[in-house]
Amino acid sequence: MQGTVKWLDGAMFVDESGSGHTVVMDAPEDLGGRNQSLRPMEMLLLGTGGCALYDVVSMLKKSRQQVSDCRVEVHAERADAVPAVFTEMRRPFVVSGFGLREAQVKRAVGLSAEKYCSASIMFTNAGVAVSHSYAIEEAEGIED
After folding, report:
1. In percent, how much of the chain has pLDDT > 90?
2. In terms of CB atoms within 10 Å, which of 5, 11, 24, 122 comes out highest?
3. Omega of the bond prior to 83 within 30 degrees of 0, cis?
4. Which phi and psi (to 5°) does residue 32 adopt?
5. Dihedral sign, CA of 34, 40, 45, 46?
6. Total count of domains within the chain
């Protein structure tokens, strides 16, 4: 895996991944940025959420669960001193679908956190207290 980060101006950077995708990062105005894009620590937090959500949705589909929507809200606390690393991360998942089995949702969320989500496991191994929870909502509308 590789990528390139290029300084644009102020505190704005453009990142290009090895797969050719780009994203802009910026800082708040009080730190010399324009507050026009994600901050680097926000990208780390959201990347962890995306990694975990990919796992959960994939496992639920493989177990033939009828998922209509799935989201995770990622919350993090940071150290008060520099470096302001993440010290705690909470990830409540909300899974919507038709006739979802709680055991399957619990299993998918747990396996993502403990075995499959590289980003989450990396933070756990670095000493971040990562926790997760889940809620199941019955979807409204017509089953596919």
Report:
1. 97
2. 11
3. yes
4. 95, 5
5. positive
6. 2
Which tokens is 137 given?
């909502």
User: Which residues, other chains included, contact 1 with Cβ-Cβ below 8 Å and sequence gap of 6+?
Assistant: 18
Where residue 140 falls among pLDDT bands split at 50, 70, 90? confident
**For residue 6, what are the domain limits?**
1-38
Do 96 and 74 lie in one domain? The reply is yes
Cα first-last separation, the chain: 38
Helix (H) or strand (E) holding 40: helix 40-62
The answer to whether residue 48 scores a pLDDT higher than 90 is yes
Q: Which of 18, 37, 21 has the alpha carbon at shortest distance from 29?
A: 37
Contacting residues for 72 by C-beta, under 8 A, at least 6 apart: 49, 52, 53, 56, 91, 92, 93, 94
Pure H helices in the chain: 40-62, 102-111, 118-125
The DSSP output letter for 38 is B
**What are the C-alpha distances in Å from 144 to residues 1, 54, 64, 67?**
38, 21, 12, 10
pLDDT of 46 over the 70 cut: yes
76 and 119 fall within a common domain: yes
| Residue 71: inside a domain | yes
